[in-house]
């Protein structure tokens, strides 16, 4: 049994059957798996388990007073018009727009930027409940802007069905392409068809609900589809039967001459790179019909030694974005006629990560750097790489750069903690780029302009011997860095003043919106962390705090606007934090590798160090601290509460990878071995067993009877159509935690609840309709507020 925070009654956990006969032998080590039966989503026993857990969770959530208030507040804040950056094809512009509470964003088309917009495709008409969405990866307009090819996803599944619509009259063509997953769409310039990727269809008799199955996705294939033909007639362009785990993606170059083939095996930023000269095909692609031959690709890069992304080409002269001998990335150039001669266009920077480059305005490019988790944008010469212009950008995130090489008008989509969204329009056709706001997203009742945010370079010297370079953000009137025990010397004249106080002193944080600090991890590595809080908070440890992390797969966490977080800041007095732990891409490939494979424990150490800092600095205290993460971040939460349950009051683990010994056996899990390793290999098995959330749940009160400690209140969130991190991960961990910590003992010290939120008709997160987003936020943050004893502020 577990007590509900602040209530006398106890949770009555359902008893889940344990099959003690299921024991695996990993390299001589016996590992039991008593809940193996939960891996079958179609079994009646599993469905019954899920129903009982849903009922239990709902019974608790009904007692969370803030739940409906969060729902109401989020609904009000969500109800505002939202736009994405427009993109041009042919003589038309296309963009996505949501009027406010529409389930899915709607695609519009207009003849010019000033023209009248028309609805081209409204996914809200494809289902009554809004659970059919457009897959953005699988969406492309033909070069002449006559056709739209798009992938439809049902219930959040990664599986998509490609359809085609005529732009002029919005007529849906008969073309239907099935069993497509992880595929882009790239049109040939004659607009007769497009390249796409798919998996083989299930064998006859394998009737499955696409999205709920767990079998591995293998034997990816590249096809070309001619408009107006059946999928069975599509041209098989590439396959590799000897390497079933390979994945393929194709892109047609801007000049239409080449189709480029990118081959991947895992999630590491490495790929093979092949190309095919379409103009050299004797009878074009049509001549490949009826033949068993694959396209005659030429192998430029045929090993997984680095990442190569083509930026532009002038006939055979190609420019690539790469991490070859450059963990912070660089731009290089090669002539296909001399494939062994590579030259640098932009060399690797010493400190900043070259995140992307996009060819624009003929012979220019926009390059994007990440500098201490802050975006830097530049215009450079495409041929020489020389700097032409610096584009001013606030502290935040560049969500997208919309332009192609032929365009001199560029759209940059920007957001930050305090900026719901701004789309900037740059005219590069003038000597100095002209910048104006094309569209700005306004949230009723929220005015970010009342905050004055700058970035200030400070040297923080602690009372021992550490010299740290720190950035923080402030308002115009009063600046304060409190309870750090650090002396501060300022480098900007604009700063009005700065005071500090040693640990243990009460101090106020006045007049700033958010700061960035660098926290020393267990091994001394400095970990960046953003802290967002209300003004005038007293650093006395009394505040509820939400710490978010990810730390994997070279993915960077940067400041973005989030309606749910605004509700938490305003109405629950929450301090919101993002820890940029190792494993991510914030500082390039070295930072990524420092949190992968044998060094995965660094991720957990970094996150735990960030949590310790928040308590020692006076922002919060353990019983007021909630941690949250999604996917690989869900693994982070599961491992963190196993290792340091005493440090947290609440945990929200979304769609987490929890069974580290078997993850590679399900759907696309085999691609994650590049970051995690694989239990099939003895050395890697021992890495994984040490931190696998499913296998490291234990009763800490038995290990430390002098310091009894229970797990924090925990919610594991998953969804029935998550075919990326399949639900079995969360279900098995949920059953294990409830048994080990609660039901196996008569009077368990574990009184904090352990519950699961299991969503129906939803997947890993993509394509989730607005109402489901609001409902999930209401449930998880209502639960968090109850467990942290946070008071609602009107």
TrEMBL record:
Annotated signal sequence range: none
Top-level division of the source organism's lineage: Eukaryota
EC number: 3.4.21.26
UniProtKB keywords: Hydrolase, Protease, Serine protease
InterPro entries (alphabetical): Pept_S9_AS, Pept_S9A_N, Peptidase_S9_cat, Prolyl_oligopep/macrocyclase
All copies of domain Peptidase S9 prolyl oligopeptidase catalytic, residue ranges: 564-789
Top EC class of this enzyme: hydrolase
Record domain Peptidase S9A N-terminal: where: 14-432
Gene Ontology terms describing biological process: proteolysis
GO terms under cellular component: cytosol
Keyword Amino-acid biosynthesis appears in the UniProt entry: no
Catalysis: reaction(s): Hydrolysis of Pro-|-Xaa >> Ala-|-Xaa in oligopeptides
GO molecular function terms noted in the UniProt entry: oligopeptidase activity; serine-type endopeptidase activity
Family statement drawn from the similarity comment of this UniProt entry: Belongs to the peptidase S9A family.
Record protein name field: prolyl oligopeptidase
Protein's organism: Carya illinoinensis
Native organism taxonomy: Eukaryota, Viridiplantae, Streptophyta, Embryophyta, Tracheophyta
């Amino acid at each position: 049994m577990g007590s509900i925070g602040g209530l006398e009654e106890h949770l009555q956990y359902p008893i889940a059957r344990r099959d003690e006969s299921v024991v695996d032998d990993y390299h001589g080590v016996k590992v039991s798996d008593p809940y193996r039966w939960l891996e079958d989503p179609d079994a009646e026993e599993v469905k019954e388990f899920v129903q009982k857990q849903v009922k239990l969770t709902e019974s608790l959530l009904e007692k969370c007073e803030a739940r409906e208030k969060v729902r109401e507040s989020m609904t009000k804040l969500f109800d505002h018009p939202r736009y994405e950056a427009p993109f041009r094809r042919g003589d038309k512009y296309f963009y996505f727009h949501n009027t406010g509470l529409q389930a899915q964003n709607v695609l519009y088309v207009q003849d010019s930027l000033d023209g009248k917009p028309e609805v081209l495709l409204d996914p809200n008409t494809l289902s009554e409940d809004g659970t059919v969405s457009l897959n953005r990866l699988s969406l492309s307009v033909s070069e002449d802007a006559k056709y739209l090819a798009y992938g439809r996803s049902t219930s959040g599944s990664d599986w998509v069905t490609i359809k085609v619509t005529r732009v002029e009259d919005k007529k849906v063509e008969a073309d239907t392409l099935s069993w497509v997953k992880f595929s882009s769409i790239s049109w040939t310039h004659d607009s007769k068809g497009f390249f796409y990727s798919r998996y083989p269809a299930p064998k006859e008799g394998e009737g499955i609900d696409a999205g709920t199955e767990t079998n591995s996705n293998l034997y990816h294939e590249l096809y070309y589809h001619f408009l107006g033909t059946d999928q069975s007639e599509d041209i098989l362009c590439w396959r590799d039967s000897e390497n079933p785990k390979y994945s393929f993606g194709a892109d047609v170059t801007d000049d239409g001459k080449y189709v480029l083939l990118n081959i991947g095996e895992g999630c590491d930023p490495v790929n093979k790179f092949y190309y095919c000269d379409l103009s050299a095909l004797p009878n074009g692609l049509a001549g490949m019909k009826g033949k068993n031959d694959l396209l005659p690709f030429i192998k430029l890069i045929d090993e997984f030694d680095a990442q190569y992304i083509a930026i532009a080409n002038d006939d055979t002269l190609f420019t690539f974005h790469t991490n070859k001998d450059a963990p912070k990335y660089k731009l290089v150039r090669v002539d296909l006629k001399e494939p062994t001669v590579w030259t640098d266009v932009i060399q690797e920077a010493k400190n900043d990560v070259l995140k992307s480059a996009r060819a624009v305005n003929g012979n220019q490019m926009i390059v994007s750097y990440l500098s201490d988790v802050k975006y830097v944008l530049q215009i450079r010469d495409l041929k020489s790489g020389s700097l032409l212009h610096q584009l001013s950008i606030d502290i935040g995130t560049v969500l997208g750069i919309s332009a192609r090489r032929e365009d001199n008008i560029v759209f940059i989509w920007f957001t930050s903690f305090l900026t719901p969204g701004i789309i900037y329009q740059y005219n590069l056709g003038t000597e100095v780029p002209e910048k104006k706001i094309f569209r700005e997203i306004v949230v009723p009742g929220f005015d970010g302009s009342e905050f004055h945010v700058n970035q200030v370079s400070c040297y923080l010297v602690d009372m021992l011997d550490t010299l740290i370079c720190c950035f923080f953000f402030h308002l115009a009137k009063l600046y304060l860095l409190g309870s750090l025990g650090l002396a501060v010397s300022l480098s900007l004249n604009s700063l009005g003043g700065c005071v500090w106080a040693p640990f243990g002193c009460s101090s106020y944080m006045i007049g700033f919106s958010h700061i960035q600090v660098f926290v020393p991890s267990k091994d001394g590595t400095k970990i960046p962390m953003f802290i967002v809080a209300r003004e005038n908070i007293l650093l006395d440890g009394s505040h509820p705090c939400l710490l978010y992390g990810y730390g994997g797969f070279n993915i960077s966490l940067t400041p973005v606007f989030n309606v749910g977080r605004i509700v938490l800041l305003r109405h629950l007095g929450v301090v919101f934090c993002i820890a940029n732990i190792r494993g991510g891409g914030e500082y390039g490939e070295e930072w990524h590798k420092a949190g992968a494979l044998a060094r995965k424990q660094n991720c957990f150490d970094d996150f735990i160090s960030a949590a310790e800092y928040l308590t020692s600095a006076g922002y919060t205290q353990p019983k007021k601290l909630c941690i949250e993460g999604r996917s690989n971040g869900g693994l982070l939460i599961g491992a963190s509460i196993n290792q340091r349950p005493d440090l947290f009051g609440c945990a929200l683990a979304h769609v987490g990878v929890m069974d580290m010994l078997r993850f590679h056996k399900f759907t696309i899990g085999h691609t994650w071995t590049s970051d995690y390793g694989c239990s099939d290999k003895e050395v890697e098995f021992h890495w994984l067993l040490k931190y696998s959330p499913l296998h490291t749940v234990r009763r800490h009160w038995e290990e430390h009877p002098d310091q009894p400690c229970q797990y924090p209140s925990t919610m594991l969130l998953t969804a029935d159509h998550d075919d990326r991190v399949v639900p079995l991960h969360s279900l098995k961990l949920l059953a294990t935690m409830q048994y080990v910590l609660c039901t196996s003992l008569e009077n368990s010290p574990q009184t904090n609840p352990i519950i699961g939120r299991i969503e129906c008709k939803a997947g890993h997160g993509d394509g989730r309709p607005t109402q489901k987003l609001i409902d999930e936020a209401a449930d998880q943050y209502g639960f968090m507020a109850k467990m942290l004893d946070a008071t609602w502020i009107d």
